[in-house]
Design goal:
Helices cover 77% and strands 0% of the residues. It is elongated.
Length: 297
């Protein structure tokens, strides 16, 4: 089939060239004027046909290019919508984790300062051992969703595997810092929010000391830092997605995050930044793995 489609492209130019050669040769002999006229007619028709065919091919190619470009724009737009939806889905669990440390400290402090309130209204206590575990699960699921998008659509987002690395490392940091915080906080929060027997059992224990509060705070700081890093990475992912996928629809680009400290890394898709960003997260991965190993020992 391919060879058949090529025939018109070959024989029409061939006839034109042969016709032109014959016209030049025959024009030298006046007795062949009628032949020259016939050859001129045939050659002109061949050249006209060739011009028409070339124009049709150009129009067809332009149509194909336009359709391809439209499909690419639609795909980029749909992918950006999916990324925005993933970000919206991660917003609540990430914000919840960001407020976790101070929320738990405040609840523990209030529980023993105003025990009568805790006894009469146990539902007012936001944090329990079960709710903490649920928050960790929701945050892990949100991180996993972003990791999957960065992994699945690298063709549309060249270099997005750097975000896959970032989300993976930050997830490891959250999981590595979680046990110490959980162990420090659990003795001073209810096992379940209802029934209120759990609050009564909680208040029957010795109240937390200053050292206990410090243990909760110190163990929660690495967790809070990792959650802040996650929130920043999500914002970087959104900004890079905007600039890569939909910036052609607008006259401006999204401004990248500007951290207050050089210790914080802005994740980009620029190849010039890749080695620095990759080295930073590989270093953090080694730290998280070492911390997990020490806790295991």
């Amino acid at each position: 089939m391919a060879s058949k489609r090529k025939w018109p492209q070959l024989w029409i130019p061939g006839i034109s060239i042969v016709g032109l050669v014959l016209i030049v040769v025959c024009a030298r002999d006046p007795s062949k004027s009628s032949l020259v006229q016939a050859l001129s007619t045939i050659t002109a028709a061949a050249i006209a046909a060739m011009a028409v065919m070339w124009q049709v091919q150009q129009n067809n190619q332009a149509t194909l290019d336009s359709k391809r470009a439209e499909e690419q724009r639609r795909f980029r737009s749909d992918l950006y919508k999916e990324i925005v939806q993933a970000r919206q889905a991660t917003h609540e669990p990430v914000v919840a984790m960001l407020g976790l440390l101070h929320g738990v400290l405040q609840q523990v402090d209030t529980t023993w300062k105003y025990p009568q309130v805790a006894r009469s209204n146990p539902e007012s206590m936001k944090y329990s051992s079960q709710s903490l575990l649920k928050m960790l699960q929701d945050c892990s699921a949100a991180t996993g969703t972003l990791h999957r998008i960065a992994e699945d659509f690298e063709v549309a987002l060249p270099g997005s595997d750097i975000f896959k690395l970032a989300f993976s490392v930050i997830g490891e940091e959250i999981r590595a810092s979680w046990p110490a915080f959980y162990v420090a906080a659990v003795p001073y929060i209810p096992n379940e929010l209802v029934p209120d027997d759990h609050v009564k059992k909680l208040l029957s224990r010795s109240p937390p000391t200053t050292e206990d509060f410090k243990a909760i705070y110190d163990s929660g700081l690495p967790l809070q830092t990792a959650c802040i890093e996650l929130a920043c990475a999500v914002e970087d992912f959104i900004i890079e997605s905007q600039n890569c996928l939909i910036s052609e629809f607008f006259t401006t680009t999204a401004t990248r995050r500007k951290p207050s400290s050089s210790e914080h890394v802005v994740i980009t898709l620029d190849q010039g930044d890749r080695d620095r960003i990759e080295g930073h997260f590989n270093w953090r991965r080694r730290k998280a793995q070492e911390a997990t190993r020490i806790m295991g020992d």
